[in-house]
Structures
1.
Amino acid sequence: MDQETRRGATLIAPPLLYALALLAVPLGAVLVFSFWTQDYLTVDRTPTLANYVKAATDPIYRTILGRSLVISGAVTVLTVLLAFPVAYYVSFHVRPDRKSLWLFLITIPFWTSYLLRIFLWKVMLGYNGVINSALTGLGIIDEPLTFILYNANAVVLTLSHAFAPFAILPIFVALEKIDRSLLEASRDLGETGVTTFFRVTLPLALPGVIAAILIVFIPTVGDYVTPAQVGGSEGTMIANLIQAHFGGLNDAPMGATLSIVAMASVTVIALALVWATRKLGGAR
Amino acid sequence: MLRAYTIAFLIFLYAPILLLPVFAFNDGTVIAFPLDGFTTKWFEELWTNAELHAALVNSLLVACASSVLAVLLGIAAARANIRYKFPGKTAAMGLIMLPLVLPEIIVAVSLLVVAIRILGLDLSLWTVVAAHVLICTPFAVAILNASFQSLDASLEEAAIDLGFTRGETFRLITLPLIMPGIVAALLISFTISLDEFIIAFFLTGSDPTLPVYIWSLLRFPRLIPVVMALGTILMVVSISILILAEWNRRRGLRRAGVADKGGFL
């Protein structure tokens, strides 16, 4: 082993051992645990697929897992669509020395307590909430709207708000990297502003869009606070179910199984997306 | 039109946050319009709430310990990543950065399983610190990667040639040059730990951190205005930290003589 290798290995050892001990080993433990079963107060250590069968067949588990993926998918699409024009505006229409000020303005709201931001959406959407008070005050509606809180829509809206900057920043970075002379070349060659956008800008911004999609999708699938606060019973997601199994239901092995299934679904979707864009990029 | 949309989007981003001070100073326990007049009594109640003070102290301890440990691990990982070549580097860095792309509930569950079912540990603030170090380290590494990247290796070589030992070179040359990165990484890690809820919710024992305590308050409508007052203070504090971080970042860029390429993160 040469000196270079030895020094590098010595330096990486503490963070690597930490990640092995507190991440790799625990994830392995969850995997092992997911094959055990809970037998009232004791855990039966005979390896079995019973939990996985239950997760695949029991309608409650299937509904909630499916709903988590659908809600996260909707949040991702909505957030990225809403974020793209903002990132585009800051990158293409703001003076270079003003850009960091705009980014600063966009990120500030996200440094207030996450819990309170979610809770404030409950205040916005509630029966006596801001939106209902405003609408009844203006005489637009007579009765407060009840369909805007405690359902999946409320979860989608709240999560889209919470994850907005995580979508704006990677798209902004990708747009900043675009060589502006390519856009001029496209215009000189007779493309219109619109076709230039779709044939030059958007393909070049794609890595940022993909990063934004992954950054929003992966954590939202496992979000606990938002469904618990604004989701009501029809907005419950997988994290709430996992928490319930470790808490009140006292069935940790089933909770471990649900964690593995959730993590596997997210990984498969994320990899499929990355693979699809590579394929798309290679075919061009 | 794009400008109008962006401004409308900013209003959407700020709308819920602006409610915090509104209801923190509102003289009524119901969080709804119309408002009931001005009061500072919710802030006074904060001042006398012992449980809240304990939770705040717990959170500050956890955030200090987590950020310092995460930055120490981050320095080692980023230095190894940028400066050295060795087999298995990609895989090692991949594992260290993995918490960035894992839903936090998974980290919480896996550590809970190990702590309770396998090691039989009692949950305490230390279990929270251990988990927060894990999730803060990738952020510290990302920031410090950039610091080590912009560090001119010939400065270190010159110091060694002039007779400094490797330890002296690191302390007297490298450390001052990457200091803005270290401060930024400390601030980010501190803020992440201070605000983190789900992992702390799973891993705290009898001593709650501030988010876990706030979560318990949200169930009692009478205490909601107090939570609003607390939120207002937290908002002011974190915006101050953010401005401090931004100022520190710009100072670092000026010192390194690099052009400003936009905000951190």
Note: Chain A has twelve helices and two strands.
2.
Amino acid sequence: MDFFGIPIQAVLGQLMLGIVNGSFYAVLSLGLAIIFGVLKIVNFAHGAFFMLGAFVAFMSGRYLGIDYWAALFIAPLVVACIGIVFEYLFLRRLYGLDPIYGLLLTFSLVLVLEGGFRVAFGSSGQPYPTPELLRGVFNLGFMVLPYYRAFVIVAALSVCLATWFLIERTRLGASLRAATERPDLTQAFGINVPLLVTLTYGAGVGLAAFAGVLAAPIFHVNPSMGSNLVIIIFAVVVIGGLGSIIGAIVTGLALGIVEGFTRVFYSEFSSTIVFLVMVAVLLLRPAGLFGRTEA
Amino acid sequence: MRNARVLMTAALTSACIGLSGLSTAVANDNYSDGVVRIGVLTDMSGIYTDLSGRAAVEAVRMAVEDFGGEVNGVPIEVVHADHRNRPDVGASRAREWYDNDGVDMINDLSNSGVANAVAAVAKERRRHAIVNSSSTIGITNDYCSPYATHYTYDAYSLAQGTGKSIVDDGGDSWFFLTVDFAFGHGLERQVSEVVREAGGRVVGAARHPLDTTDFSSYALQAQASGAEIIGIASTGADAINAINALAEFGVTPNQRPAALLLWFDDVHALGLETAQGLLLTNAFYWDANDETREFSKRFYERTGRMPNMAHAGNYSSTMHYLKSVEAAGTDDPDAVSEKMRELEINDFFAQGGYIRPNGRMVHDQYMWQVKSPDASEYDYDYMELVTTIPGEEAFQPLEKSTCYLLED
């Protein structure tokens, strides 16, 4: 059976891969959207924290013997702590200034982190083994799907839903949303807004690190693994609507699928399609698909 | 009175200049600005930095030190810069070096796009460029000049090595995973030619951008193509990720991957478990004989890593350049170019090597196979020799070269 002249197996296969990639996009753009929503900082270092997550998993495995499952929890925590220190020492000095300062500071962090890891570990990357339990493949008929990739979809989407639930359906989330809209009033109600902001940054980069650990067995753990991704992630957040939680999740997944489809029909175009969608969305709905136009 | 004072000042000044210049004037007359300056233009921060990078700079420095630090009494200097894998950055740095900084020869030149661009600048500015790390056969064809030398290997030798041996072994339908710039396209073209000449066929190709991390969709395309051999026309991290993805999606072992340019460092990064059995065409392997081991040991002590073929080529070509400068008694590019083509190269890297009029350094190439983890007995014991490809067969025959120097 054919689909516009392409075997249906190929289409379904790429669709499946689109969902896998989309899951990565969703977790990463979710963190970015939360940080932008609360801090109003364009966190250019998001890709670097993703890479850092993978490296923490790799290093804790090599030097401390910590396995993948433990790393899945430990690495995001470690990276969140690093993020919190960074926010406390540097980032908070830029609140209220032109967003370009935040962008410059976080971009400089990217250069420092990537450069440092390149000097220490080289550019070829380091292998990270797939956990024993998830080795092997499903034969879906139209493609073979490695167990691990299937696990990525489940893990990533569970974390996205949990985060969405935390923000939209709990008291902590309500305080957070209040602090975003009216920090002064929220403070007056006795909620420690600066602490909330710091923790939000930690949680945002922790999500990036979680995605990094998920990515470690698939890609070589490599200093530049985040820098290509971060551009797409920004496009995802812009398309979804800056600061929109559900927008980031849905758009992340959807763009992964669009990209997968493009690979079937014209592979060279796949790295560009996301930006074309972004242009189209910005022309038709400047606030993004799920964004609200500020009154 | 006033005139007399001016005259005296002028006389004193010229005497001072004369005195200070006297000691070196004799030796320096034939050398532009009194220094032989070598620039190492390489990837210091990107995807190819492990293949050349800082270690390439060290290789050139080692050659300069082993040469004695000066040639005919003139000091030798080494400078280096990062081309960031961008031809425009590489070309403008080369211009600046040649025009303002007195650089006589540029070495390494990883990244085929950068190498082509710098070869063009070298031709225009009449200064030397020696390409060691990249494969583009443009250097000895459209971009050739008396000043551009292609030293270590090229896309043609890779095709004659890995490509040809796999075709001979019965792999007759090919699908390519090609990195989307000059290097990948050139390599794919050369290997396709070899495949077709041997009666095989190329069923398709997928192009991916430089520095791709996710090869899953390309792995599926390769699988769907049904080709027997998946030719990987990329190198470094790209090739590593492609090989991993092919294994992950169960493409291998049903279809065989052929890494068309695999480096020693890639084998190291992949690990023997994944890389075992892969074939690679490399001009140099550290553990080939006593001489290579001696050089490699010294290199390891300085850099903390084993040299690959480009590092060895950087050393050997710098030596050859300096010997040619010494023999010519000048750093005049034309005189040096003549000597470079006249002198034979005999060292740990090449035996009986010589440079053809189009700039191609002809020397034997070797095909290696990656050992299994059990067969590896000590650190970095990764490869065993499969076959030696004589230089005359390994490189593009002169009659096929489009270099303008061959026209008359």
Note: Chain A has one domain: 2-235.
3.
Amino acid sequence: MAHQRGAAAVDAVKEPHSVSLKVLRLSRPSLSIQHPLPLPTPIPSPSDSPTVFPSPSASLAYPGAQNDAFILSPLLTLPPAFGSAYVGETFSCTLCANNEMLPGANMPKNISNVRIEAEMKIPSSAVPVPLGLSPNTPESKTDTEEDQKHHDGVDLEPGRSLQKVVNFDLKEEGSHVLAVTVTYTETTPTSGKVRTFRKLYQFVCKGCMVVRTKTGVLPSSPNDGSKNTSRKWALEAQLENCGEETITLDTVALETREGIRSQGVNWEIVAEGEEMERPVLMPGDVQQVCFLVEELLGPDGQGAEPVDGKVVFGILSIGWRGTMGNRGFLSTGSLGARVK
Amino acid sequence: MDPPTKEPKTTPQRHSRHGSSGRVDEISLAIFGNHAREMFKGTILTSFVAPIPRRPTRGPLDISDPAANPLSPTNLLHQSSSQILSPPTRYHTPRLPSPTPGSNLSTLSSVPSFKTAHSTLQSTQKDFSYLLRPEIYHPLALIDVPPPFRSPSVQPDPSTPIPELISAGHWRSAAIRAAQQLTAPTLSPSDHTAIFALIYTRLSCLTLCNQTPLAAQEVKCLEDLNSSYYRDDISGLPLVPWHLRVLAVRLQGMGYADARRGVMGYYDLAREARLTLTSLKKRLSEHNAKELETKGAIENEIIIWKERLHDLGIRVASALVEMEDLEGAARFLKTLRPSTSSDGALRLEAQKALLYLCLGDVDAARLCISPSGPTPGDPATGNEEERKKEQNIILALSHIADGNYDASAAIWEEFISSGAETAVYKQNLAVCHLYLGRMDDARTTLESLLTTPEGPNTFHALTFNLSTIYELCTERSRALKIGLAEKVAGILSKERTSGISGQGSEKVNGDFKL
């Protein structure tokens, strides 16, 4: 986690907790890389050659990997570090509450009713957003919501863990705080008490996509016989990857409001026999997209009504995929053209 | 980091640049003074014979450690004067084209005219003592080795010969031994076969024991392996084995902190491979039917060079991935033709698919592996099955890219129940389980891979993933990670005594997140 604030023990008991909390950001797992050694072909047997060569599998990601000099293998590796968090992505994190009691300890404590709650503090709001936890505890499905709150805890044997996964759509730049509260019941042969602690994990969410737009008026075409003609514009947008990772643009669409229609003139249009190639944006790369926008004339021959001297087209929504398919999605505010 | 050496005397690169011009001769003449100039006036186009005393510092420029040449009329020359002289290359051996871009390499690989005309000439004894300087080879510290792997019981006997060390997977010890032998006074500076074999052992073993940065520094001493100094003067054949030249490309790119250099290095080698192929094919077509045996030999050579060329192509793509130019790598892979092996097309499709997954273009990845091969009804048996398997692997990975871990887990489970070679599937299933909130299952699956009856696994991604899970499931993860390291050390030590050479017995702290 980017930054962990000191654990704020809510309860006054100074005694160390019997349950620990561990977290791992679940970015997509990555493909293991390998650097296959160049070896002579065919590998001389030890009897023909004084030199002995390392076995081909020694430099592969796993023993049975294809020995074809390629760097990527289908073997998955868990995320090694927190990485960067970007607006538009879904933040996933796993939370583990672990019973840290050693089996056979001289003061046996029974840990029961362990519960994890999580919330996200976002820059724009003072009130944290409660987060849903998955997977659900199966036995509590039939309970009413109120009951669930009190009984969905899990009893943990020493050395066992309760694991939950949270997901959160990052929509704002700036400092986010994931706050996790663990509550459990600690029972010794002589007493029992409910204990709780809270841990805060802070990270910064950055922008990854900068969108700049521009509209230009196109010559309007006569509208079959009627005296009114529909107006046309070209909406251009520059999409800049200002993050630190390579991304592939998935979809760019102008979601038009009523009375407006648009047509993208981007990479979806391919000549026959050609394959569609999605634009890849390395850090700092800019992709230009363009849409032809036309107003639809109503039965009265009137076009879209300007609002505050502006014809509103709609919003631009942009979807992209990062490394290993990590999804990002962003939509702009209303876009339009000024009219005189 | 050592700066690249600047002395012209130890720079094969310079040699290649100037060796074919008159400048080397001029320099030698300047060094040897007027006396030499006088000598050369009368003795054009001859070779000098007498052995000269070896000088302490030598480099590629001192190309002409003269071999006795029975053909040469210069036997008549005065013994004392030729002792002073290091004769200029021009007069010594038939001129060879240097392998600069555009030069005709077909003459280098086949050289029929030279061979027939000068078949009795011996090749010069080149001096490679600049590769034997002790300061090139760094000591290997144990600091990065986890404690269980440091114990003397795991370390091999110091007298074990290199081949045994390599067969047992003792990369560290083999690398140390190779450096010792390279710097030992018993190694002749002209024994290029032994020198290059030892350098290959040293560099390859360093990369295998996670000391690639050291290898990248040490490889710099080789400098330009395409230089004509690294070729036999008479046959023009390279003295450095192909696998070492390929290995040196990536390492030198890293050593000079210039990944592009790596890509270019592969292109240089590819050019040479293409020219060799052209010349081999030409020889094959000129071949008359009588010499069936040599015809077979040439055909074999052609297969080897085709494989080499394809291997270089894949290495270029890998180098682009390593320098994080995934887009460039994808474009490059599109231009590559599949290798001629029976599953060549499928391999290339699978490689493209993995790359698209990395790029995040999941749809493109799924489309990479066509449902049927380019030649339906492929006679190669099992090819259809292989294709189905690759397709399912990519499908399962695509599900992960889509965040659909349940669907992915189902495919891995199907693979596991079907039997063969399950380590990769089990590992990937365990990863899915962790993302699904089933950490206990993930841990059990990964731990089972360490004790699987088909042969325990100890590969990096396994110990790394297991250590990550240990970090998640307790505050006292260090004890678990050390325990894992001990277990792995035990497995490797047992493998070694039973004579199985697996992936090697070297592990570093990073393998266990220690």
Note: Residues 3-28+79-206 of chain A form a domain with the Immunoglobulin-like fold (CATH 2.60.40.3880).
